């Protein structure tokens, strides 16, 4: 009975010799010497304790035990070769699965994906829009495009899009507030505030950091989707403290306007490509991350230019600086 560990290396030599019909051909395929192949065959026979070949006048013919072993090994190695070919085909065709939050996926990523598809028409891409982060240990997802601080334990993260946050509303609602006062602080005291529940900068943080006193951060409208907050603001229902990343088109078209040049936009790294470290070396993940980062740089430059045209200054932060207890 064989008690030694199975020598798969010797079996691969054995399978090649029988499949190709000779030691020399096997040595050529495996790029080793003929003597190295012969040595591997002898080691395999010694390990199994049986003869696998009858050797007559420098010709090899399989014994019964050799025939049984070859039938098994050729099926096994052919299965391995099939899997390898499938993996190589998949690598060449670039299958990519991405998870992204619904608001960012619909409002920012989707309008830009056509550019990526034009550059890489052979790719197959699946985008899963959900607020839930991927469990990479149990789900078949290549990477997440996440909103956050970039410090997810055990995962590789790379910032791809900066965000600029400021209070904004419709021109009609701003005109309504100006009927009370030209002072933006007084306007805030009379305004209906729209709260984005999952944002890092919310009214209860933004108001005190901007020295706004006498304004209670009691928001009659609260949403867990930024897109809904912005939609309501554009419909003159109140002021949203929101992302220019998702409001860019509305700001450019004039459907939304900054509340006042008195309030700076806060810029910080907000959207991150996140994946296990082992995924980061995949060519498809690297190329997609580079493309998103390039689109992010173009977006940030456009956002800065647009806000400058509207008289808005901005302040840079390495990450959201929340008040104690937030």
Keywords for this entry:
D-Maltodextrin-Binding Protein, domain 2, disordered C terminus, alpha/beta, two-stranded antiparallel ribbon, 12 helices, 10-stranded mixed β-sheet, 326 residues, Arc Repressor Mutant, subunit A
**Main sheet attributes: strand count, strand direction, barrel closure:** 10 strands, mixed
N/C terminus separation: 68 Å
Number of helices: 12
Return the CATH class of the domain at 162-268 and 301-316: Alpha Beta
CATH architecture of the domain at 162-268 and 301-316: 3-Layer(aba) Sandwich
Percent of residues in helices: 40-55%
> How many β-strand runs?
12
Task: Indicate the mean pLDDT.
Answer: 87
Helix and strand pattern? HHHEEHEHEEEHHEHEHEHEEHHE
Q: What share of residues are in beta strands?
A: 15-25%
As a whole number of angstroms, the C-alpha radius of gyration is 32 Å
CATH fold-type name of the domain at 162-268 and 301-316: D-Maltodextrin-Binding Protein, domain 2
CATH level-four homologous superfamily name of the domain at 162-268 and 301-316: Periplasmic binding protein-like II
Task: Compile the SSE list and pairings.
Blueprint: H1 8-20, H2 23-30, H3 34-48, E1 53-56, E2 59-62, H4 64-93, E3 95-100, H5 102-119, E4 124-129, E5 143-147, E6 156-169, H6 171-178, H7 184-190, E7 193-196, H8 203-209, E8 221-223, H9 226-234, E9 239-243, H10 244-253, E10 257-258, E11 265-275, H11 277-280, H12 283-309, E12 314-316
Parallel strand pairs: 3-4, 3-5, 7-8, 7-9, 11-12
Antiparallel strand pairs: 1-2, 5-11, 6-9, 6-10, 6-11
Helix pairs in contact: 1-2, 1-3, 1-4, 2-3, 10-12
């Amino acid at each position: 009975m064989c008690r030694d560990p199975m020598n798969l290396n010797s079996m691969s030599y054995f399978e090649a010799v029988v499949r190709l019909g000779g030691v020399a051909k096997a040595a050529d395929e495996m790029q080793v010497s003929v003597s190295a192949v012969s040595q591997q065959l002898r080691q395999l026979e010694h390990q199994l304790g049986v003869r696998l070949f009858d050797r007559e006048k420098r010709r090899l013919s399989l014994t019964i035990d050799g025939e049984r072993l070859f039938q098994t090994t050729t099926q096994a190695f052919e299965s391995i070769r099939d899997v390898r070919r499938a993996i190589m085909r998949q690598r060449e065709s670039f299958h990519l699965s991405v998870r992204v939050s619904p608001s960012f996926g619909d409002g920012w990523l989707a309008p830009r994906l056509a550019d990526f598809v034009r550059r890489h028409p052979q790719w197959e891409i699946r985008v899963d829009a959900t607020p839930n982060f991927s469990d990479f240990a149990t789900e078949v997802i290549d990477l997440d495009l996440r909103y956050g601080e970039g410090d997810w334990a055990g995962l590789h993260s790379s910032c791809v899009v900066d965000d600029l946050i400021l209070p904004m509303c419709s021109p009609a609602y701003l005109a309504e507030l100006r009927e009370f006062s030209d002072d933006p602080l007084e306007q805030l005291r009379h305004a209906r505030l729209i709260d984005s529940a999952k944002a890092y900068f919310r009214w209860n943080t933004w108001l005190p950091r901007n020295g706004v006193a006498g304004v209670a951060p009691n928001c009659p409208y609260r949403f867990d989707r930024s897109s809904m907050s912005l939609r309501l603001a554009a419909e003159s229902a109140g002021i949203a403290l929101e992302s220019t990343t998702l409001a860019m088109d509305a700001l450019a078209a004039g459907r939304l306007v900054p509340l006042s040049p008195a309030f700076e936009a806060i810029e910080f790294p907000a959207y991150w490509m996140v994946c296990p470290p082992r995924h980061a070396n995949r060519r498809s993940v690297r190329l997609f991350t580079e493309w998103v980062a390039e689109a992010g740089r173009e977006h940030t430059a456009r956002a800065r230019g647009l806000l400058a045209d509207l008289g808005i200054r901005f302040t840079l932060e390495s990450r959201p600086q929340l008040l104690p207890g937030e």
